[in-house]
Amino acid sequence: MKELLFTMAKGLVDHPEELTIREEANDGVVTLSLHVHPDDMGKVIGKQGRIANSMRQVLKACAIKENVKVNLDIDS
Predict the structure, then answer these.
(1) What is the pLDDT of residues 18-76, one digit of tens each?
(2) Rounded to two decimals, what is the model's pTM?
(3) CA distance 16 to 36
(4) CB atoms < 10 A from the CB of 49, how many?
(5) Distance between CA atoms of 65 and 36, rounded to whole angstroms?
(6) What is the C-alpha separation between 47 and 51, in angstroms, rounded?
(7) Three state DSSP letters for 11-64
(8) Which residues pair with 30 in a beta bridge?
(9) Which residues contact 18 (CB under 8 A, 6 or more apart)?
(10) Dist. CA 37–CA 14, nearest whole Å
(11) According to the model, what pLDDT value does residue 46 have?
């Protein structure tokens, strides 16, 4: 899932070199923390959070296949 998130986010940002993802797994719950350059926050979140919500839905579909739950946090 980490690679999937990296691929989605890399296509959105202007500073892909500052893109980092931290993954933590706890009792069947995977938490992905996406850190982007402050100038790219708006592009990753989108208007009214639509892009962020779409990324969360894709990750949840992937998580169903792996029988886990996933949370996505976006930080600058």
Answers:
(1) 999 999 999 989 999 999 999 999 999 999 999 999 999 999 999 999 999 999 999 98
(2) 0.90
(3) 8
(4) 11
(5) 27
(6) 7
(7) CCCCCHHHCEEEEEEECCEEEEEEECCHHHHHHHHCHHHHHHHHHHHHHHHHHH
(8) 25, 70
(9) 35, 36, 37, 40
(10) 9
(11) 94
